[in-house]
Amino acid sequence: MSESVPGTNYINAVSGIKSWLTTLDHKRIGIMYLLFIAISFGLGGFFALALRLELLNPGQLIVSAKQYNQLFTLHGAVMVFLFIVPSIPASLGNFLLPIQLGAKDVAFPRLNLASLYLYVFGAAFCVYSMVSGAADTGWTFYTPYSSTTDTSVISMTLGAFILGFSSIFTGINFIVTVHKMRAPGMSWFKLPLFTWSLYATAIIQVLATPVLGITLLLLVVERLVGIGIFDPALGGDPVLFQHFFWFYSHPAVYIMILPAMGVMSELVTTFSKKNIFGYKMVAFSSIAIAVISFLVWGHHLYVSGQSDYADMIFSFLTYLVAIPSAVKVFNWIATLYNGEIELKAPFLYFIAFLFLFTIGGFTGIMLASLSLDVHLHDTYFVVAHFHYVMMGGTVMAFLGGIHYWWPKMFGKMYSEKAAVVAWFFIMAGFNMVFFTQFILGTKGMPRRYYSYLDQFQPLHAFSTVGTWVLTVGFLIMAFYLVESLLNGEPAGDNPWGSLGLEWTTQSPPITENFADTPHIIHGPYDYDKVKLS
Amino acid sequence: MKITEPHKEHIVAHHFANSKHEFDSARLGMWIFLVTEVLFFGALFVAYAFLRWSYPEIFVEAHHILSWKMGALNTAILIFSSFTMVMAIRSAQLNQRLKTSLYLITTMICAFGFLVVKFFEYSAKIHHGYLPAKYFVAHGASEYLHLFFGLYFTMTGLHGIHVLVGIGLIIWLLLRNRKGHFYSNYYTPLEMVGLYWHFVDLVWIFLFPLFYLVG
After folding, report:
1. What topology is assigned to B19-212 in CATH?
2. How far is B200 from chain A (nearest CA, A)?
3. Distance CA A106, CA A507 (A)
4. What per-residue confidence (pLDDT) applies to B129?
């Protein structure tokens, strides 16, 4: 099919801005997503820095109380809708899914490009909201406050609505790609676990996101013509909004974490040169998490006045999520046993995830218990919990994935030493910021408060200093990754000695991914059977 | 229409093995999209259930205000249009290009007919002040009747937008059929729009009894 001129790859096959803006190549689309996602992360991180700076002392330091509310809303909305939901699936997923399946592209390349444009279009709405009286409702947009505040709620919700469709289209594309585009010999149980996790994620994206869409649309209609369905003064019920919102937004938490778990499975096998322990259990636990995720949303509403029976059932169902999550963690650890472990940068992020996600998961179980949640609800304990899962889990795995697949995506290596230094700063900074917040939460510090009692000041200050350490880590990373793009050593096709299909093609891959359609003979982790020459 | 002109040979996209592979993939994708549509409307049906459970009396009251005859007429129109849509696909499978276009035009006329009926219904409601909460000015109505009309306009409005999108898609199909894109080996877009159109039809089949026939 493709007469491979030596040195030709998907990056230099065609050139010019237009060739990128109109590309149908999943790899280029993934790279563009990666760029936008990195910008979003920078923006959300900037808001976080401003928030923490304001909280250095009680009382006003740099922003007013209203601006503070707008800042935490923007931090949440940007980080959730623009960064973490698309993060791994849209960037690494887009790049890798077809290659891991041995396909030339995703099933619907034009729909894939449309997803990217919808993402940028939705982001434009969010940015418009920022500059035209930013929303101050919190990223959860709870009514009746969101239907009455004078800030720019409509543009932000429309932005999230459009971003939702970007997410849905990616989900549809991935499901069909996994079903229909597998190379000859690629049976379901030879699929890489990253692909399994993307598949499970896509199921949630497709089933949950439309409910968020309609909820946000109802909020817009409520603000425009006042249908009153969420307004108690008109006979409606604001708790209905919370049910609708969390019916999406709790499964969305698993949209965020499942791809990260997939990255973890790839990292642990490559860097211990072992077959994954319990392949089928790891694969099915992704599906189990996806299914259970739809049945737990009520644990956000324990103190909303929903019935005690509902509370008890949701509490029980929430405990259930711990089982497939623990299956994964135990299987990763069992995989390490007797492995040839290499402490390379991607593997450091594997370790970070393992510890931080476990803390995040356990505190999640604490919050799922009814009596404890009444005490901890809406405190910094909750903030610390979900940051341990979202940032300690997803972001760490995302960084691990970027470091792992960087040589494949760009064909260049980065400085391993600088990567280790950055990892130390990020680990230290992260724990300074958020472990402190567990303590603040148990002492009763409520979330989303502009000011606080004097006795909390030392812990708040420590947490704020942590954000600076974290920033240093990310700046080092930005520096050495850009340096790698400019002057990096050529990486070779398979720098980690991995058995994954993506490592059998050249780095960076050619536009068609493989010179000839691959025929799959062994599984992706058969390190005990296959010896690389 | 120059029906004597031969059809245009379809070129299978480079990442598919053959046209059946391509067709099957597109159909799976469309079905998954329809699942998201079900969830999209599903939340509104939950809102409906919640309101009906909270205020059953407004649904009985509203049933006297809505015209079931208009609703029934629209139901008949949509079911008939689903039939003509199927016939359009069948004609393409049999390489009958002119018939395909005629059936598509019939489907489109039905869609416009549906919207015309809806327009008369809407204007009557608006004229009597049966509007969502903020603008509700009808006299002698019970306290929470505005909730019913808030939901009525949201759900039928969203359905109406889907009908409009359907009209746009049918026009697109007509233009492509004019160029001879569809024939027995390639009618994927027709099949996909057909699935969409049946879905739009089906949503109305749920909306009609739930709004017009309660009480």
Report:
1. Four Helix Bundle (Hemerythrin (Met), subunit A) (1.20.120)
2. 16
3. 19
4. 83
Overall residue count recorded for chain A in this entry: 533
| d(CA A257, nearest CA chain B) in Å | 21
Token pair 């019913």 in the structure block, residue = B148
Mutation choice for A interface testing from B15, B23, B37 by most A CBs within 10 A: B15
Helices B68-93 and B97-127 cross at an angle (nearest 10°) of: 160
Cis amide leading into A144 (omega within 30): yes
Q: With an 8 Å Cβ cutoff, are A211 and B43 in contact? A: yes
For residue A452, give both structure tokens.
Answer: 């606080």
Contact present, B102 and B117 (Cβ < 8 Å) = no
**Which domains, ranges and CATH numbers included, belong to chain A?**
24-503 (1.20.210.10)
Taking a C-beta distance cutoff of 8 angstroms, is the pair A156, A126 a contact? yes
CB B97 within 8 A of CB B6: no
In A132-237, which residue ranges form alpha helices assigned H by DSSP? 145-148, 153-180, 193-225
Residue A147's CB is within 10 A of a number of other CB atoms, namely 25
Select from A95, A109, A86, A103 the least CA-distant residue to A28: A95
pLDDT-based confidence at residue B5 (cuts at 50, 70, 90): low
Model confidence, pTM? 0.94
Helix (H, G, I), strand (E, B) or coil at A25: coil
Residue of B nearest to A175 (CA): B29
**Rounded to whole angstroms, how far apart are CA atoms A72 and A112?**
31
CA proximity to A434, closest of A398, A382, A373, A374: A382
Residues 6+ apart with CB under 8 A from B96: none
Strand ranges (E), A365-492 = none
Give SS3 for A134: strand
How far the first Cα of chain B sits from its last, in Å, is 51
The tens digit of pLDDT for each residue in A162-217 reads: 999 999 999 999 999 999 999 999 999 999 999 999 999 999 999 999 999 999 99
Closest-CA distance, B4 to chain A, in angstroms, reads 32
pLDDT-based confidence at B4, cuts 50/70/90?
low
